Amino acid sequence: MKMVKLVVCIVLVVLGIGARCSTVAATDCNPIQLSPCATAILSSTTPSETCCGKIKEQRSCLCNYINNPRLQKFINTPNARKVAATCGTPFPIC
Question: Could you tell me the pTM of the whole model?
Fold first, then answer.
């Protein structure tokens, strides 16, 4: 399980280099911020409180991630939608 999390973090770091942006709400859009959710997204486990907090913080950035071809395969998945719903954060329609 630790290896899966490490691999996801490395992928997010590599892919996230070009995905940093700023939104009107001044949120620092950085997909690496969602790394606490990697286990829940990849294995369908219950997301942690840390994961839910990060999804709420990054909610305004999700459309940017979904529209990024390098990130959408991780973000725009049934498991990611399930994690967002479990955290009480509606998944955006982009």
Answer: 0.69
> pLDDT, tens digit, for every residue of 30-81?
999 999 999 999 988 999 999 999 999 999 999 999 999 998 888 889 999 9
**SS3 at position 46:** coil
Amino acid (one-letter) located at 93 = I
Task: Tell whether 11 is covered by a domain.
Answer: no
Domain extent for 44: 29-87
Q: What angle do CA 49, 29, 21 make, to 5 degrees?
A: 180
* Domain count across the chain: 1
61 within 8 A of 22, measured Cβ to Cβ: no
The label of the residue with tokens 């479990």 reads 86
- Tokens 């911020």, located at residue: 33
Place of tokens 């390098």: 70
